[in-house]
Amino acid sequence: MLQNIGNVAGGDETRRDSRRDGTTHPNTPATMITIDEKTSFAEWISQMETTREEVRRVRALNWKEIEENKRIKTQNDRLAAQKKPLLKYTPLPHKINSFAQECLDRESAAARLMKERSPDQWLKIIKSLPKRVQSRVACLVWWDYFGGQRVDKRWAHLDDLISKPYQHLPLADVIEGLTLVGYTPWAATCRVSFDDLSILEKEEEKTV
């Protein structure tokens, strides 16, 4: 294990930020959100699980308005194509609580910083990881941030790393590697667990 992040599933052990003196891990670039000094790895996961339940609860309360807005969107797509005035969406009466919103904002901020990285920056930060996790992390990063490039403008910076033979690693090591390149504990855990990282974002859009 790269660092002790504890039992991710059970959460009976916790992994705190790389350094307790307030400094960041030596591999941490300037454009990276680190784990809050007062929030352990397990606590971060717990907070996001609570947030997900809040998002689902509010979405259920706003169900009628959400369905109406789906219909409006379909109409607006047609109107936009015809260059006609668009219809107004129906306001959602129920909002998620402030704590859940703060948690979502924290996740969004981290994701936004990673989206702003250049391919050279990605290669540099991944190369700073222990060699045995570089290929696995590179593959996940490629799917998340490289795969959407046009074929004629594709980023080839990670090709050498993602072409290496698959090597089985403990999930905790992969999660740790992802957090060291900028994924939050929640995003890294979901990514390695094959959960859809966009689920929370989609649900948030329908509730706020």
Listing every helix as H and every strand as E from the N terminus to the C terminus, the arrangement reads HHHHHHHHH
In round numbers, the mean pLDDT is 78
Shape: flat
Distance between the termini: 39 Å
User: What structural category characterises the helix and strand content?
Assistant: mainly alpha
Beta content: under 5%
Which consecutive residue ranges, at least 5 long each, have pLDDT under 50? 3-35, 195-204
Biggest sheet, open or closed, and with what strands and sense? none
- Provide the number of structural domains: 1
| β-strand number | 0
Work out the helicity level. Answer: 40-55%
Number of helices: 9
Rounded radius of gyration (Å): 20 Å
Description:
The chain has nine helices and no strands. Helices cover 54% and strands 0% of the residues. The longest helix has 21 residues, at 41-61. The two termini are 39 Å apart. It has helices at 41-61, 63-81, 98-115, 119-127, 131-146, 159-162, 171-180, 185-192, 198-205. It has one domain (41-205). α1 (41-61) crosses α3. The chain is flat, with a radius of gyration of 20 Å. It has 208 residues and is mainly alpha-helical. Residues 3-35 and 195-204 have low confidence and may be disordered.
Short description:
This protein has one domain (41-205). 54% of the residues lie in helices and 0% in strands.
List the SSEs and their pairings:
Elements: H1 41-61, H2 63-81, H3 98-115, H4 119-127, H5 131-146, H6 159-162, H7 171-180, H8 185-192, H9 198-205
Helix pairs in contact: 1-3, 4-5, 5-7, 7-8
